[in-house]
Amino acid sequence: MKIQTKAIGVNRADVFFRQGKYPATGLELAGMAEDGRRVAAIVDGGAFAAEVNVDEECVLEIPASMSFIEAASIIEALFTAYYNLVSLCGLKAGESALIHGGAGGIGPVAIQLAKLLGAKVSATAGKPEKLKLIESLGAVAVDYRPKEFGKEKYDVILDVVGADYFDANLVALKRSGRMGIISFISGAKAELNLAPLLLKNLSVYGSTIRSLSLDVKAGIRDAIKPYFGKIKPIVDSTFPLTELDKALDYVEGYKNVGKVVVTID
Predict the structure, then answer these.
(1) Which of 265, 259, 263 is nearest to 81 (CA)?
(2) Helix (H, G, I), strand (E, B) or coil at 54
(3) What is the rounded distance in angstroms from the CA atom of residue 40 to the CA atom of residue 151?
(4) What's the angle, vertex CA 88, arms to CA 191 and CA 98, rounded to 5?
(5) What stretches of 16-113 adopt beta strand conformation (E)?
(6) Is the pTM of this model over 0.85?
(7) pLDDT of 87 over the 70 cut
(8) Please, is 219 exposed, middle or buried when counting C-beta atoms within 10 Å of its C-beta (0-12, 13-18, 19+)?
(9) Cβ distance 54 to 43 under 8 Å?
(10) Measured in whole angstroms, how far is the alpha carbon of residue 179 from the centre of its chain?
(11) CB 205: neighbour CB atoms within 10 A?
């Protein structure tokens, strides 16, 4: 189906694409479908365009209370957070979860989803305004700068940092803990201490939503429908499509508290 694009979410993957570290750019959008519906969708790339072809399996109708900008700010994050926290890591009510990058593009959505699932949630950030946002979402804010998040132990960790945090994450996991890695901001290569994986019976998952089959994406879409209207969008700023490079610079510099969205008039 074709969508007339109104808003596109900017992700760390778009920055990586510009740096030559990721194979696609433009992963989520919101706009008008051919049948007149207001919809949001994830795509495998190409969202930074006035008209985009999307698969029906990747589309959600936008609630009346939500704007195109707000919908574009959470659709990909909700797919990613649900697949990693629930499908892979099996987060359950009463368990504890640590969300790294809690005030970035995905963090606020992951925090809210984990809380809706009944988990006890903590999240990391480094700037006062980001720690304040985490607290406003009902999570325990953890300053990552002392690198002491391992003092507490968690059932599930959602990680965007990668190499620099791998060993510390293993330490921070409880026995039979699970970790989902969704990005590698600090790098993709590290020397690892594998002992905790064996001694604590840990599980580590890595994934990208764009690599999943349409059947799997359709299953995630159906699972997240009840949450789509319950997640509060946290939009830091918007840029017109003509200023896409400025938007990418802003995200690359970690200036955003919440999501950055590009708009098309």
Answers:
(1) 259
(2) coil
(3) 39
(4) 65
(5) 28-33, 38-42, 51-53, 59-61, 96-99
(6) yes
(7) yes
(8) middle
(9) yes
(10) 14
(11) 14
Q: How far apart are CA 124 and CA 126, in angstroms?
A: 7
Instruction: Give the mean model confidence (pLDDT) for residues 215-222.
Output: 98
Residue 147 burial (10 A CB sphere; 0-12, 13-18, 19+): exposed
Tokens of 193: 């201490």
Phi, psi of 42 (to 5 degrees): -100, 150
Which string of b and e fits 229-247 if b means at least 16 CB within 10 Å? eebebbbbbbbebeebeeb
The CA-to-CA distance between both ends of the chain, in Å, stands at 21
**Pairing status of strand 2-10 against strand 28-33:** antiparallel
- pLDDT tens for 25-54 read 999 999 999 999 999 999 999 999 999 999
CA distance 116 to 79: 15
Q: Which of 160, 137, 14 is nearest to 80 (CA)?
A: 160
Which residue type is seen at 65? S
Q: What stretch of H or E contains 111?
A: helix 107-116
- Other CB atoms within 10 A of residue 105 CB: 29
Task: State the CB neighbour count (10 A cutoff) for residue 87.
Answer: 17
Token pair, residue 140, equals: 């325990």
- Residue type at 89 in one-letter notation: C
Q: Model confidence over 226-262: pLDDT tens digits? A: 999 999 999 999 999 999 999 999 999 999 999 999 9
